[in-house]
Design brief:
280 residues, CNF1/YfiH-like putative cysteine hydrolases, six-stranded mixed beta sheet, 24% strand, globular, binds zinc ion
Amino acid sequence: MTTGNMNWNEKNGVPFLTFPAFDALPFVRHAFSTRLGGVSEGCFSCMNLGFRRGDDEKNVWENYRRFCDAAGFNMQNLTASSQDHHTIIRRVSQQHAGLGFTRPRDRDSVDGLCSNTQGLTLVTYYADCVPLLFADKRTQAVGAAHAGWRGTVGRIGAVMVQRMAEEFSSKPEDLVVGIGPSIGPECYEVDTPVAEQFLAMEELNPIDFVHPAANGKYFLDLWECNRRVLMAAGIPAQNISCARLCTKCHSDLLYSHRFMGSQRGSLAAFICRKEEDGCA
Ligand SMILES: [Zn+2]
């Protein structure tokens, strides 16, 4: 199975993907789900982690139980984003445990989460959009952000760097960032009005991530654009990993909105600052 630059892990028949650079950090636990190892059926087959996609709720809960058991997360300590393609980052702490799981979300627009609470697990959702994970080697704070094209052009990666500086005194040079599985540069075709917003990011040299297509449209490289945004925010290039794993090319392994349409499940990224003796 192709996993790009990510590590393939598996326990009890449930696979999950991790970044080697994050596996090397003793204070962080993180994981990306795949389509495999769950109980959902039909277009949700089979590890759908989205409660709001029309899947049977019992199956989604069972998927969480299996995934959290395999990857080592405490189900009581999950907190969900509330993604709507803006760039609002929320700092969460123990009082937010269970939001989006055992109790309803209390806000509508949260495309990024950050925390330094040990054990609290940040959960964000994907199916082509770009997952950005953050870990601060010095303060041990962690973050997760959802960067679709709107979040990317809104520089949500830089918004997270700024917010982590405000909340945790994080310095860009201490941040390790992972750009997760998402739609790749050969598969993400957009119309001119979208491309023009990226071409306007002049300081990032957009000809490196906006490529004209033969049909008058454009291909966008969201991985490279996010990398440029993060570097412009002060993160050293060597601290940034990119999974280079395209959801659309690997729709057998990953849910892809472009490939499957709206009848599909959701992938999720999980990250927490471990407790002293493990995450749970
Ligand atoms: Zn692709």
